[in-house]
Amino acid sequence: MLYGVFIMKLLLTTVILSIALLLSGCSKNNEINKQYSIGIIQYTNTNTKTLFGFKDKLYSLGFIEGENTTYIDYGYAKSFDEIQQKLVKIMTQNPDIIFSSTTPASIAAYKIAKKDNIPVVFAPVNDPVKAGIITNLKAPGEHITGVRLGSSDDKRLEWLTILNKETKRVLVPHNPKDKSANTTIETIKHAATTLGVELILKPIHSKEEFNTLLANLPDDIQAIFLPRDGFIMSRNKDFAKACQEKKIVLSTPRYEHVQDGATTGYGFIGYVVGKQAARIAGAILNGTPPGDIPVETAEDYFFINIEVLNKINLKVGNNILRQAYKE
Question: Which is nearest to 204 in space by CA: 213, 195, 194?
Answer without folding.
Answer: 213
